[in-house]
Amino acid sequence: MSQIPLVDYLVLGDDPHLLANECTSCGARFFGRRNACASCFTTEFASVEVPTEGTLRAFTIVSHAAPGVPVPYVAGVIDCGGTSVAGNIINTTPDPDHVKLGMKVRLATNVVGTDDDGKEAIGFGFEPLAASTNETGN
Amino acid sequence: MATDDIYILGINMTKFGKHPDLDSVDLASEAVMAALTDGGVTMADMGILAAGELMGPGGIGQKLQKQVGQTGIPVYNVANACATGATALRTAIMAVKAGECDMGLAVGVEKLSGAGLLGGGGRPESKKKVFEPSGRKGAVASLDGRIGTQTMPGVFAQVGMEYLHDHEYGGAPFELFAKISSKNHAHSTLNPLAAYTKAMSVEQIMDDVMIAYPNTRPMCSANCDGAAAAVVVSGSKLATLSDEQRRRAIKVRASVLTSDPYQEGCQVLPDVNTLTRNAANQAYETAGVGPEDLDVVELHDCFATAELVHYDNLMLCDRGDAVDLFESGATTRQGRIPVNVSGGLESKGHPIAATGIANVWEICHHLRGEAGDRQIEGARLGLAHVIGLGSACGVHILESVAA
Fold first, then answer.
1. Which A residues in the span 37-66 are in contact with B, Cβ-Cβ below 8 Å?
2. Of residues B313, B300, B225, the one with CA closest to residue B25
């Protein structure tokens, strides 16, 4: 079965990871294409790999969403070695007892769906590292 | 009064809530005519009209003129997310400051009752489902709920949680934010123009419908209908007006609008902090005052989680001390720096484009000593703040100059 990433900055394969467009002048990183750098306005970018492990900086547990979006789900911001990444927290129970600020997480992929041609869309999220210890009590 | 000073001459907000029998033009007309009456002037005196209706079909300014007076003046229809009203006000102020006219009118209106969840949602599905990359991220499907959330309650939940993470908060986030919401709902009981005027306990708030943890329904801004309008005047023109008009005029000590400067991560989770801090800094510098001089503050509590971060962004406390400021009781109406004595967006309501002028109205109401049961006694200096996601931030510092 053929696969396609949910977004073009997700690289599939044996070692799934995210790619950022990094400004060659100031180092600012962006997901998706940019006409120019929002930080320094230059136009040269290089594609760089983003670390697949990180720390959960912020999260919410969405219980009420637009029609067709399954709830509850955990949306968060993950600090991946200095690059902020938006992603869902997956492979754990979506409640405040299982999702904590400061928890260590790693990239994981999941199946988003299959289209009428049999092509499978693969998305990503972040799952708790098994032996994670929490930075704070919350 | 210096000739280049700017004053609010007349200002009004409608009752916020459900207005099934009034359309947005009716609501805007009501606010405009009342603001003109409040200022003792007419449409014939206005040199500019700036108008906003964010979710409307466009052209609210001209539609309004056809109900209240077509004088041929320039109309600027503005849109700037939840800062639309503040942007309209700032536009009128800039026109007067630029010397193009000596009086201007700003209005914001929204019909939002029953609008439900804002932000988020999918994209139209074609008949045949084929995954094809599109857009700047090459997405093959809607990303809302799959890569983070685009819902407003969820975005601002993360904003509040990020603050707690960055400042190593050791308490219970859910209860903290519920307490902030309870404070504003208590304030709303004294505001007859608020959409909701019911006191709510922390337990009631926590037990209500969860929208996006830690925001339950009463911790979210209330979608409702409403309008607000203001007449601004130059200092030189005000000097020619009556004693009564001069006595009630409120001086605009600072009018600032900022957008978000680039920060790491700001395109992943909107950074509502830096532009608010920048706006506050500019406003304090322009006004020649500091946060310690303020008697009353209306800030953009679109969600309980947002109020907390803006204590810090507006420098009502030292950096990182927003929780301590709140826990001290300083931001209640009995406290050192009362915040959102109107009830805030969580209970007064948030008809988007009206909010940025309604906040200014609330401050003016106190500075004029006309706030009735909820009057903050002796208030002379106040600040009104709004933020529109994307982002735009408006800060106005206002002062009573009546002897």
1. 38-39, 57-66
2. B225
